[in-house]
Amino acid sequence: MLNIVMLGLIGFLLIGCSSNSNVSVSKIASAPENASMPVKSAASEPVMVGGWAPVFFTGFDKTQLANIADGINQGRIKRAVVSYPTRMQTLAGKIHDYLQQQTKQPIAMKSVELKDTDQVKYNLKQVIVTLYFN
User: Fold this and answer.
1) Adjacent-strand bridge partners of 88
2) If you average pLDDT over residues 95-108, what whole number do you get?
3) Taking a C-beta distance cutoff of 8 angstroms, is the pair 117, 45 a contact?
4) Are 25 and 92 in contact (CB under 8 A)?
5) First and final CA of the chain: distance in angstroms?
6) 78: how many CB neighbours lie within 10 A of its CB?
7) How far apart are CA 79 and CA 134, in angstroms?
8) What is the pLDDT of residues 16-61, one digit of tens each?
9) How many CB atoms lie within 10 A of CB 71?
10) pTM metric for this prediction
11) For 32, which of 19, 79, 123, 134 is 20 to 30 Å away at the CA?
12) Which residues have a Cβ under 8 Å from the Cβ of 98 and sit 6 or more positions away?
């Protein structure tokens, strides 16, 4: 019985102390400065994140290369890097020269030597053009 009385007394004191403030919930809810603040929408302004994508070539595809050159010229593609195994150096050179002529920008070339293992087999008959976006 004494415990119940003590709990009631503590609860009464807590309620009494919390209501001593002069600001009421209805005053806060109806404050005009809260109602006039604009709400920011996450979808109102797109954010460019960037990234990269590989494009694989086993032959000289002028249409695909023209699309890449257009993307570079229009600013959608920030830069391109031509990666190739040694045996594909001729095709890589043609791709590099075409992109550089069409964009008037330096295109990096990178020779990649990969060795097959028991667990991993590489396709050494393709050139990879890695595109980097803003």
Assistant:
1) none
2) 97
3) no
4) no
5) 72
6) 13
7) 9
8) 555 555 555 555 455 555 556 666 656 667 776 789 999 999 999 9
9) 16
10) 0.63
11) 19
12) 60, 62, 65, 69
Alpha-helical regions (H) of the chain: 2-18, 25-29, 32-35, 62-73, 89-103
Nearest to 96 by CA among 107, 84, 110, 83: 107
Measured in degrees and rounded to the nearest 5, phi and psi for residue 28 equal -65, -45
Identify the structural domains of the chain with CATH numbers, from first to last.
Answer: 51-133 (3.30.1330.60)
Main-chain dihedrals φ then ψ at residue 80, nearest 5 degrees: -135, 145
Burial of 88 (0-12, 13-18, 19+ CB in 10 A): buried
54 φψ region: left (φ > 0), alpha (ψ -120 to 50), beta (else) = beta
3-class state of residue 133 by DSSP: strand
